[in-house]
Amino acid sequence: MITRIVKLEFEESKTEQFIIFFDTIKNKVNSFPGCNGMRLHRDLGNPNIVMTYSNWDSQDSLDKYRESETFGQVWPKIKPWFANKPEAWSVSTYFDGFDSK
Fold this sequence. Notes:
There is one protein chain. By secondary structure, this protein is an alpha+beta fold. The chain has one domain (2-91): Alpha-Beta Plaits, CATH 3.30.70.100. 34% of the residues lie in helices and 29% in strands. The protein has a four-stranded antiparallel β-sheet with strand order 2-3-1-4. Helix 1 runs antiparallel to helix 3 (69-78). It is globular.
């Protein structure tokens, strides 16, 4: 399993538009084959920064999503709203204290 973390910084005037749009597509992404869940985080100090945190079966599953019609509809729509270049990391979990509680 891999975790994908993507940091997106939006222009101030576009952040709420993104949140509204996200609510229309979150279930499509969350239920995409190979996706085991997704979260959206919002920075407390700068609400124009959001981070998606998603768990995938494998890099192949993530790649299939990134080549999908769903991604092809999402990315071009939100890309013009960015204030800065997105940053992304694919990581494996070394320790997960959430599962132990």
